[in-house]
Amino acid sequence: MKLPGLIVAPLTPFKRSDLSVDWKALEREIDYICDDCKAAMISVSGVETSEYHYLSFADRKELIKRTAEMIGTRSGLVVGISHPNTKIALELADLAASLKAEAVQLLAPQRPYGGQPGTQELVDYFGGIADKSPLPLLLYLNPGPGADVGVDATIAITKIPKVKYVKESSRDLARVSRLIVEIDQAGHARYFTTDARRFRRDHAAAGLLHRGQDHRCLQRQRLRKGSEAAARVRVVPGEVSGEGAGAGHEGGDGTDRHSARRSLPAVPSVHRRGEKSAGR
What we know:
The chain has 9 helices and 9 strands. It is an alpha/beta fold. It folds into 2 domains: 7-194, Alpha-Beta Barrel (TIM Barrel); 234-262, no CATH class. A 7-stranded parallel beta sheet has the order 1-2-3-4-5-6-7, covered by helices on one side. α1 crosses α2, α3 runs parallel beside α4 (119-132) and α5 packs parallel to α6 (173-184). It is globular, with a radius of gyration of 23 Å.
């Protein structure tokens, strides 16, 4: 997998006439994701919006096979194998391996008889699949469709050697911040999260979305522009500098170091109570 990059879950289009999968529409979608969005990896039948749970098991496997064929070598492939029955999940994992997928995506399940599973139950479930899976696992966390997995349980699952990735959909920033440190930075697994709805809302308000332009492509463009800007201007406490800036008033490229300061948003001064600012 090429990182950093996008991991995209395509929607499954259906025909109005008989509600069967619209393969031509799906192919156009995959072409767009691969060629325009340049996705690092595509998650096939991995999330609820792909509506795999409305398909028969045979149709779900056909969706996986045909989508993998459409992708070819243009993008990495991760296959959703979510199912409370470990035997069925492993059957899908074997299919994913035959299609040369890089990983399998597995939703943390709720208890079949109701209620949230405990930490050991989840570790046993993921551990049992990991032991027999031919591919590494991507732990998928989505409270509601799946279990509401606590922080300690999430960390425990990622300590299973074959759990290499985590996809977080809780949108809890405090949780996300902690798990980035305790999972990704600790070296247990790579940790991914997103809030596409907020991104789309913010950009729609800014007038940046238009017909035919997907929020994922916009996100990629924004990240690229942000990286380019960061390469031009480096901000450290008490200093604003450009590329190659050396000691003294001018940067290493001969530019005024303070000219970069003028390109940044102004930060209002904060004064202690009763203290006047200069010039007042």
